[in-house]
Amino acid sequence: MKSPLLSVFYLVLFSQCVSGKDCTCELKNSQRPFPMEKLDSIHIEASKCAKTITSTQLTEVDVLMLGVQQRLKQLEESVSVLENEDDGDLYGAVSVRIIELELAEILELMGKLKKSINSHKQLNESTASKLQKMTEGMQELEAFDLSHVVSKQRDYRRMKRNLVECQNELQATPPPPTPHARRCSQGQLVNVTGPRTFALTKYGTSYSYGAWGKDPKPAPGKEDMYWLVALTSSNAFANYVRHYTSLSTILVGVGPMDSVISASNPTTNTIIGPNVVQYGDALYYGCYNTPSVCRFNISSRSVTNTPLPENSGFNNKFPYGHLDATYVYTDLDFATDESGVWVVYTGKDNFGNVILSEVIEGSPPSLGQTWRTSLHKRTATNTFMVCGVLYATRFLDKETEEIFYSFDTETREERYDLKIHIRKMQTNIQSLNYNPRDQMLYAYSDAYIVSYDAVFQ
């Protein structure tokens, strides 16, 4: 049998033996020497490409295009209002000025879009040229693979992908519990798709904890407004909420309006934890250093609160988390759905299992009906409400979050086998909330604001 070594290198062996002396052998390799320098240069070029092209660059054009579309829609509505006005030119000048400002914002976005497109075009041409050269170089190097190791590895990876796809088909998402028709006329939640939007806030990557979204019960004139809370102190505290007039303005960070809750961080009425929601022109959040629900009236700039039941966890006693990390100061988690505001928390008397309470609107707010579940809070990463059903997520890996649990407040049915996957753009999701007006999930993920479509059957 031919030796594997000879089959690869085709060695030629010559031996000589001189009388009375030791035998000597001369070994010659009939193959070309492997060009290690070429392989190193290809590896260096590939590393440069990986460091140069970021996820932000890949989504920048999509974000700007979405912003332009939103602003054009808003401009069309403003022009329609101006055309229909019949007030003897009383407010006409004001409407024209509003249109001028909207046009200026559109032109600014168009300028950024043009600049980004030109930059992407140059990057695309440069990257395509480098990839072509690297591909040709690797094809040349593959000629040295006489045992066909590389081609066998490709076959192995292809087979592995096919097996994973087959396994996913066998473990298809089962139907979640059916909500009561009165609460959820659109049907039952069966999937989450997206993300639809993915962008850094104006803060950049400085503040990895926060929340954002739209008010499910907005005040008149604020139907298109978005809110944003970033924990600007120790990833734990915030003392103001920021509002934007449209999706495009929050995505590009234009013209925020700040509503200050307290003078500094941390102090009385400071926001603690990222699980914040806005509902009915009021912000609901965990009160600083107390197990209480705080309500900040955005119009009057006043704060009222109501305490949670005795022995409820706060100050990082029962945070969300997974095996590798915990999400600090997530003892209280607020949610909105078709019926209003909810608060998720726990306490020692429920052994760390999730407690769910309705939050009744008012100044001060109050707690309504309460449910106790068997879900241990530290096994989840987030919760949200849809049609009176509590859903919980957990960390699967850096790319995937899984909705694995549900609790129906009407039937009290609990399930741990939902297996609805959410595709992540960053490793962690610090807050997650559902908005029934647009049927979307809003996530704050390692300083990025991300939105997903909730799919109903």
Describe this structure in words.
The chain has 457 residues and is α+β, with helices and mostly antiparallel strands. 29% of the residues lie in helices and 33% in strands. It has 6 helices and 27 strands. It has helices at 4-9, 36-52, 55-84, 92-142, 149-170, 247-252, and strands at residues 11-17, 23-29, 189-200, 210-214, 226-230, 237-238, 240-244, 257-260, 271-272, 277-279, 282-286, 292-297, 302-307, 320-321, 326-327, 333-337, 340-345, 353-360, 366-376, 382-386, 389-395, 400-408, 414-415, 420-423, 431-435, 440-445, 448-456. Strands 20, 21, 22, 23 and 24 form a 5-stranded antiparallel β-sheet that branches. The chain has a 4-stranded antiparallel β-sheet with strand order 3-27-26-25. Helix 2 runs antiparallel to helix 4 (92-142) and helix 3 (55-84) packs antiparallel against helix 4. The termini are far apart. Mean pLDDT is 84; it is low at 1-12 and 174-182.
